[in-house]
Design goal:
Number of domains: 2
Shape: globular
Strand order of the largest sheet: 3-2-1-4-5-6
Order of helices and strands: HHHEHEHEEHHEHEEHEHEHHHHHH
CATH superfamily of the largest domain: NAD(P)-binding Rossmann-like Domain
Number of helices: 16
Helix content: 40-55%
Oligomer: single chain
Largest sheet: 6 strands, parallel
CATH class of the largest domain: Alpha Beta
CATH architecture of the largest domain: 3-Layer(aba) Sandwich
Mean pLDDT: 87
């Protein structure tokens, strides 16, 4: 479907990008006409990535980094660019090839990524992976001494995080939950939001270091608070995506050009970064290469509904969002970007949401 009337799908003035809050210099690098920004998919990652003196963070930290996948690898790379010495581990050594070429050391196990480092950072797909890496055989705790520090950058269950924190504390090890938001674009650009829960003094010490991976580093409260914030954020993002796909298919089937409709919403009270950044980069271009995989989105929505049940909070609409993501997983969309969930609505409505840009 061509959009002949309005291709200017851009956020309202000074709205930050999908990948998180962006500094003034980064906003300048993102400059140009809205149509051009839409064509190239938003943020110019290479231009925005921190390097050399532009990097943020206290220099000279020694860091163990476990999990160098789609999110972990660019975060680790930005830490190296900021002047930190990394020891990295992943189930697949080839996932860390570029980091080793940048000067990182390799650890054959999570245990070996701990000794001699100021902190260990973990970036893993699901809570059970974090438990295995921290508590399992050859895990972080086996290599930790009293005074060791762990930052878990994964999107985790607050219950699991608090349990891990208790086990670590018995060994004199401090664990903080530090999930991030902004997707692979934000990870590469160093513009993630970082939400930290746990010991305040430890946060204060490492806040500059975390600034190498995120432009908005927030202390959220006691252990688990970071995970609660991240789960609430992702629930909102996925829920908006489902509702937005309904609104857009409705408008297009009722005869309005997609470009016009999206432009109107982008500049009205219904605007969201899910529209102006996420849909414009993925769904509208028919691009489902994973910036944030559907499988991870489904996991996060389920974490939210589980948390609602744990605290007795009604989650009626969230349960519908959960059902839609379960259907997406059943259809095999798990490895694709989370915007692929909208394809279910497209099929049911008989409308395809694509812009000719």
């Amino acid at each position: 479907m061509s959009a002949t009337t309005a291709l200017m799908i851009c956020p309202t003035k000074n709205r930050p990008s999908e990948s998180g809050p962006v500094s003034a210099p980064a906003r300048k690098r993102q400059g140009g006409q809205p149509r051009e920004r839409l064509r190239r998919g938003g943020l110019d990652v290479k231009a925005a990535a921190p390097t050399g003196d532009q990097a943020t963070g206290e220099k000279g930290m020694k860091i163990g980094f476990i999990g160098t996948g789609n999110m972990g690898n660019p975060m680790a790379a930005n830490l190296i660019r900021a002047g930190h010495q990394l020891t990295v581990h992943d189930l697949r050594r080839e996932a860390a090839t570029n980091l080793l070429e940048m000067g990182a050391d390799w650890a054959d196990s999570p245990k070996e990524a701990v000794p001699g480092n100021d902190a260990v950072l973990t970036s893993l797909p699901v809570p059970r992976d974090v438990e295995a890496v921290v508590l399992g055989e050859g895990g972080v705790l086996e290599g930790a001494d009293s005074g060791s520090i762990i930052f878990d950058l994964s999107t985790n269950s607050p219950t699991v995080v608090r349990r891990l924190h208790e086990v670590c504390a018995e060994r004199g090890v401090t664990l903080l939950d530090s999930p991030v938001s902004g997707g692979t674009y934000g990870a590469a650009a160093g513009t993630l939001a970082v939400m930290v829960g746990g010991d305040r003094a430890t946060f204060d010490r490492f806040e500059p270091t975390l600034g190498a991976i995120g432009s908005h580093v927030v202390y959220c409260g006691d252990i688990g608070a970071g995970s609660v914030c991240k789960i609430c954020n992702n629930l909102m993002s996925m829920g908006i995506g489902v509702l937005l796909s309904e609104a857009l298919t409705l408008g297009v089937k009722a005869g309005v050009d997609l470009g016009t409709l999206a432009d109107v919403i982008a500049h009205s009270s219904g605007s969201s970064r899910r529209l102006t950044e996420k849909f414009s980069r993925f769904l509208f271009q028919g691009n489902f290469e994973p910036g944030f995989a559907t499988a991870l989105a489904a996991k996060d929505v389920r974490l939210a509904t589980d948390l609602g049940r744990e605290y007795g909070v009604p989650m009626d609409l969230s349960n519908l969002v959960d059902q839609r993501h379960v259907e997406a997983m059943f259809r095999g969309f798990g490895p694709e970007d989370s915007d692929a969930v909208a394809r279910i609505q497209e099929e049911k409505a008989g409308v395809q949401l694509r812009l000719d840009v």
